[in-house]
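FORM 12-B: Structure-to-Sequence Request
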């Protein structure tokens, strides 16, 4: 099952706290950093998808139209 966005952010925070503590070995730090970068990429992609969905508005007929705040 895929992780939810919130779970990814929480895991990322835990990794950051662990790395900042200085209590991890070099190898473990590299592994945690690699995992953190993977999570950042996944979260960034999710946010871009959400931003794209939000930037469109549904019309009465169900079709989507670009939403421009200036026209609202």
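FORM 12-B RESPONSE
SEQUENCE OUT:
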């Amino acid at each position: 099952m895929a992780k939810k966005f919130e779970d990814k952010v929480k895991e990322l925070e835990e990794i950051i706290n662990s790395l900042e503590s200085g209590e991890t070995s070099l190898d473990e730090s590299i592994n945690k950093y690699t995992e953190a970068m993977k999570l950042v990429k996944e979260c960034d992609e999710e946010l871009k998808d959400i931003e794209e969905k939000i930037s469109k508005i549904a019309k009465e007929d169900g079709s989507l139209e670009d939403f421009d705040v200036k026209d609202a």
